[in-house]
Amino acid sequence: PRAWGGEVGTRLHLFSRVDFAAALWDLYLQSEQVFDADDDSTEAAGPTNRYGLDLELRYEILPWLWADGDLELAHAAYTQDPGNANAVALAPTRTATAGVTAIHPSGWKARLGMRYVGDRPYTPTCAAH
Question: Residue 126's pLDDT is what?
Answer without folding.
Answer: 40
